[in-house]
Amino acid sequence: MDGILVIDKPSGPTSHDIVNIVRRVAGLRRVGHTGTLDPMATGVMVLLLGRATRIGRFLDLDPKGYIAEAIFGIVTDTQDITGRTVRESAKNVNIDDIKRLIPNFTGDIWQVPPMVSAVKIRGRPLYKLARQGREVERPGRLVTIYELELVDFFESDGKHKAIFRIVCSGGTYIRTLIHDLGEKLGTGATLSSLTRTKVGRFTLSDAVSIDIIKATGDDIHHLLISMDSALSHFPEVIVKDEAVALVLNGQKLETDMLERYLELGAGKKFLRIKSRSGNLLALGQIVKTDHVVITPKVVFN
Q: What is the fold, at CATH topology level, of the domain defined by 234-299?
């Protein structure tokens, strides 16, 4: 059983919990994922099953989309609502001030990873240091916020809250984005809920719930996105029947072994190498241009 499974993760379980559920239900050992979601967060989580665990680095996983709710006037030690409140403010939040700040948080911005992140400092994940009550200096990183839209602004339980729609690059910490916005406002802010709506081409419309996975049992083939479809951003070449064994053995392919190919230059661009019947055999690269020579790099045998 090979393919991509897009999960609509519920709030509560860890990403590791979700992987274990799918392993158990599908009866598969080889199940991985392309990026974690915090236990509090919901939404798109991309799982790789079987041989698809080998293609994670080739998937087009940017940009990522989120719907985030912020509470103003509260700062926590985790930058989200699950943490311990370390500061509160009674200062009023003005919707116009938020809108005025949005351009400052759009485009390329610097973020300092939160202490509860998995970023490693001297080989140790920050979240493990945070559990010990330690805080260390963290280097900033450049991330890109492609879109930041204020969707709603309201008051609830005596606190001002806002809903944001965010499209950003991988590696962006939404909790830190909300925290930094609150600091600029002078009120503080914390992330109170988060839904990931997309990871690259994979969206909530592709996703299935864990309840459906459990109900379906080990017959989940119809829920999978094929490896070929997931890699469709790479061009394809078709090999002749007699060349299939060569591909599966990782041997180079000359022009006369190809049924159909594109005029492509040598370089880092990958190609899907497929059989006449449409089976995905490998990912390869063109290594010569005077006459086409393709070297399989990742073979799916």
A: 2.30.130
